[in-house]
From TrEMBL:
It comes from the Bacteria. This is Uncharacterized protein. The lineage of its organism: Bacteria, Pseudomonadati, Pseudomonadota, Gammaproteobacteria, Methylococcales.
Length: 320
């Protein structure tokens, strides 16, 4: 497959998410997305860690009072003449319950070409609303509206769900175009770009698609002066258990080659150990140093393309 432009609008993905019947599986979502771009393979690369955010308000019977607790609290506070105690009494009388949204982000890859950077990453939030706490703790009422909305010590209750999971489109990232922007703003070669370049010229890039085991994920962080900086990270998505490779003392030649080959077989592609080392995951940098000593001496068990990548790393080390 050669790289091609993917014509997939965010609104198309949003509509697709809305058409998935609540409670149905991720596989159905993937099949609907695949139908939007039948010429490009799609797969679920990663399901992120669970997170939560404020939800809405329900009564003791589970009847919906409001979808958004912040909007409800601010509006009802005004309706109560900006008298917090009146609002508290109202909530206690109705025995109102605050909910929360629990969610996980699905990272979906659309492969558009053969190179490491030839894919689009779609992020979709899968959320489920559950009961969280009594809106008011009668023994410890809130001192202000902010504490009512999000108390430090909530009056928690047994959690139960409302309805089924829902999907919401977050964003999509054309990795090739995104990296062009990152590279323009980054002094020198960005480590993530170098990782992909090394992948493309190594044995790994000849045998395996990078996005099957690694994804490029944008993120924001705050700079020294409070400015918002957009950057990018590499995330490993390999699902099988792989061994840690740390102690290489005394290993060289066929002994060392066998250890690395075994790791590569378990990972599913050649030269995998090198890329796990770059991520600082599972493989110690001592592996590269030991292999370099071997290939600089009497041993030659790496393909030429991988030798070139390793020699460049020894000359100018980097990690991601």
């Amino acid at each position: 497959m050669t790289e091609a432009k993917l014509n997939l609008a965010g609104q198309d993905i949003t509509d697709c998410c809305k058409k998935v019947i609540p409670g149905q599986t991720d596989d159905l979502l993937l099949s609907k997305l695949q139908a939007l771009v039948p010429d490009y393979p799609i797969h679920l690369a990663l399901t992120g860690d669970e997170w939560y955010k404020l939800g809405g308000v329900v009564d003791m019977n589970g009847s919906r009072i409001a979808n958004d607790i912040i909007e409800w609290a601010e509006r009802t506070y005004l309706e109560c003449g900006q008298n917090l105690q009146t609002l508290i009494d109202h909530a206690l009388e109705l025995q109102l319950i605050a909910t929360r949204q629990t969610g996980k982000t699905l990272y979906i890859v659309v492969q558009t070409g053969d190179k490491a950077e030839d894919f689009t990453l779609i992020e979709i939030d899968k959320t489920h609303e559950v009961s969280d706490r009594m809106l008011i703790d009668e023994t410890n009422p809130p001192a202000d509206l902010e504490e009512l909305i999000d108390p430090i010590q909530p009056f928690c209750i047994e959690s139960y769900g409302f309805g089924h999971s829902r999907y919401t489109y977050r964003r999509k990232t054309d990795v090739r175009l995104f990296m062009e922007v990152i590279n323009e703003r980054h002094p020198g070669e960005h480590p993530v770009q170098r990782f992909m370049d090394d992948w493309n010229r190594s044995s790994a890039g000849q045998k395996h698609r990078m996005s099957d085991d690694w994804i490029i994920r944008p993120y924001r962080h705050t700079g020294r002066f409070g400015e918002q900086i957009v950057n990018v990270e590499i995330v490993n998505t390999h699902k099988n258990h792989l061994p840690h490779l740390e102690d290489f003392a005394g290993k060289k030649g066929s002994s060392l080659s066998n250890v690395l080959s075994r790791f590569d077989r378990q990972a599913g592609y050649p030269f995998a150990w090198f890329f796990y080392m770059l991520k600082g995951k599972l493989v110690s940098t001592h592996s590269a140093e030991s292999v370099y000593k071997d290939i600089s001496g009497d041993f030659a068990y790496l393909p030429e393309r991988d030798e070139a990548v390793l020699r460049d790393w020894i000359s100018t080390p980097y990690n991601v």
